[in-house]
Amino acid sequence: MDILLKKAAVARTVLNLWPPFWGSGIKITELSKDFSLCQVRLAFRWWNKNANRSQFGGAMFAMTDPIYPLMLMAILGNRYHIWDSEASIKFVTPGRGKVFAKFQLDKEFIETILVAVASGEKFEPEVATEVLGEKGKVVAVIKRKLYIRLKRQYRPELKQAA
């Protein structure tokens, strides 16, 4: 996992070959070297259409699932537990072709995280991602609550107690 999180090109290749992504037609089309930007595309194939002949909502949900935690793991390093703790999806309009999502982490957000978790407490920020159709129209909005916390061995209160 460490090698995956050190080089963006390797991470992109591994994730594009990951069966849940590959099998669903999900592809990471861009991943910046510093992991602050990721763009994902979901193909429109017969196996990911729903009964209404539009994009299957589960595939759209899946295309956003691990992205923010993986970006943060690469940026913050292995001293932290980072995962999704909640998620919701709001469908706006049917996706009738390829759909796209862009994930971006700015320096202020990273600083907010570092300050919030420095004491060893958990931090649960919410992030939202718009899934866009080929013409740029919003197809869905996916909200996720992240769980971020220093791993036990790095928490200040435990170091003092030892």
The structure class reads alpha+beta
Put simply, the count of helices is 6
Determine the fraction of residues in helical runs and give it as a percent range: 25-40%
Radius of gyration: 17 Å
Overall mean confidence score, pLDDT = 91
Strand content: 25-35%
- Count all strands and give the number: 6
Lateral strand order in the biggest sheet: 1-2-4-5-6-3
Give helix and strand order, one letter per element, not per position. HHEEHHEEHEEH
Query: Based on CA inertia axes, which overall geometry fits?
Result: elongated
Largest pleated sheet: 6 strands, antiparallel
Poorly predicted runs are none
What is the distance, rounded to the nearest whole angstrom, between the alpha carbons of the first and last residues? 30 Å
Descriptive overview:
Helices cover 31% and strands 31% of the residues. It is built from six helices and six strands. The chain has helices at residues 8-17, 19-24, 57-64, 67-76, 107-117, 156-161; strands at residues 26-31, 37-42, 80-91, 99-104, 126-133, 138-150. The chain has a six-stranded antiparallel β-sheet with strand order 1-2-4-5-6-3.
